[in-house]
Amino acid sequence: MNGKFPQNFLWGGATAANQVEGAWDEEGKGPSIVDAIPGGKQRLTIVSSPEFDFSLDPQRFTYPNHKGIDHYHRFKQDIALFAEMGFKCYRFSIAWTRIYPNGVEETPNEAGLAHYQQVIDECLAYGIEPVITLSHYEMPLKLATEYGGWKNRALVAFFERFARTVLERFGDKVKYWMTFNEINSAAHFPIMSQGLIVNSGALEPQAKFQAWHNQFVASSTAVKIAREVNPQIQMGCMILYATTYAWDCHPINQLTALQSQQAFNLYCTDVQAGGKYPYYAKSLWKKLGVELSIEPGDLALIADYTVDYIGFSYYMSTTLNETNPDVDSAQGNLLGGVRNPFLEASEWGWEIDPVGLRIALNQLYDRYQKPLFIVENGLGAIDKPDENNYIADDYRINYLRKHIEAMAEAIDDGVELMGYTPWGCIDLVSMSTGEMSKRYGFIYVDLDDNIAGSGNRYKKKSFSWYQQVIASNGADLS
């Protein structure tokens, strides 16, 4: 490993409000879409059914996000642990529903603003830079049930009000922001980022692409507000990136991989970072029967207010095959595809590919020439504490070590990388399964899948390992 991390490299960790905070109905907070999504391994199957309509049914389902890990009340304790690890930054999200409970109010909920002021001040007291996601899979429930999600242009104005409120309140203290978490993930699960379910267009390309357009306008609007509030603010986009391979060298599989790369990994970033719809967009729209409603001024706004950096999550690569029906599918891989015989997989079937991260970094930097920020990466695993509540999670250390090595190699390749915030730096409720048992953190939280337990925090072996990584600025990965 030859690459050296820059001296100002942002080592840290990442969470999302709906997965850690709990307190889902306290101090004026309204319900978000995730508050209406059941927990359990069938979570994504349930929300993909035509019957799902966001109705809460506590007789049939559990809702672990309602309690989370109680970070809302315990953030000081948690941030102190992050500081002990040496975090340079902490990526978290502001719950839209704490500021505008239903998304449509004209005045914000002051209790919500006061809470995030405390969280920000606590971070800054330890010298930790807040990295804030404006919308992380937690739009107000009313905007999904009564407005039909992001396909409705009305949401642009609601989001603008929210973004302006928090940017004006916190823009003098918070330098790093992102607009929409994993905006491109709507290709696979549009409920999370766009608020679309089957009966509001989740299966319809027209609804998804219109929702994306509206989000692009909202994103550029947020960038514009940030520039006005404080020119020092760095506003990024955020995508889910899965390095894409063809299963073999058959030209059809190579073409499939190329087109998938464009449609999934690059489409949203081409607009948010490149400032315009890409050359292949019209062909893609035609193939899918999409006709966008674009209002006057939209394209100029998108062109004038591109993001400053590209944030992305990287968990796995995906391998595509169109020609051989006998190839095994990649069971459990979040984005589908076929099994890659050269890769191992996690307990949840997510294929582990550190070299794919180096490829991703090179692909993104080559295309956009903007700073990159890995804002999610990590290993979800079942951790089994011993009698002293200690977890020797060498499997997680090994995973992270290999990915950090790949980052260093990409820096050596010439990539400009700003920072690294592993996902779920403290155990939290999984997005894909709504479970606590799928753990990512350096810190163990004593709660089960029903959110029963003491809630006590315990340091895993990876805690001291990551502490050493940060202290050495990535030089000591032993």
UniProtKB/TrEMBL annotation:
GO cellular component: cytosol
Family: Belongs to the glycosyl hydrolase 1 family.
The keyword Lyase is annotated on this UniProt entry: no
Native source species: Winslowiella iniecta
Protein name: 6-phospho-beta-glucosidase
Name of one Pfam family that matches: Glyco_hydro_1
Keyword terms: Glycosidase, Hydrolase
GO biological process: carbohydrate catabolic process
GO molecular-function terms, A-Z: beta-glucosidase activity
